[in-house]
Amino acid sequence: xxxxxxxxxxxxxxxxxxxxxxxxxxxxxxxxxxxxxxxxxxxxxxxxxxxxxxxxxxxxxxxxxxxxxxxxxxxxxxxxxxxxxxxxxxxxxxxxxxxxxxxxxxxxxxxxxxxxxxxxxxxxxxxxxxxxxxxxxxxxxxxxxxxxxxxxxxxxxxxxxxxxxxxxxxxxxxxxxx
Length: 178
Description:
By secondary structure, this protein is of the alpha+beta class. It contains eight helices and four strands. The termini are far apart.
């Protein structure tokens, strides 16, 4: 919880600074790359979390992986290292992306399906997001075979569960109550 609050504070600070310098979009691109790399690369994540790896090594590795970072993004890495908080870099990057999306009036809809999304289902999901929130959204697709079919939609605080597993669970509850 404390790390989440710290990540939000760092993200807000870098976002405000980037807005003032009119480079919020460029920094957002950097933060997307960082968040994606940290979440998909176990080695990178482990290196950031490791108390054994020296901070100088962490910094040089990050700058080698992310070669074309904006000056503000490099300053964020320096600040996190200086404050012994480099382990939350991925969280800060995710929070920054959320702040940027909110400022642009867009949102990310996480769609969990049993199979890859078809174009038809994407259209239906985007229509449902528009109906629920009144805003447009980008779709982040998650595949989870345990839901059997249908989809689970999460947009901000709203969750819409149209999965077959959920419907079967409801039927089971109805039969056990009667």
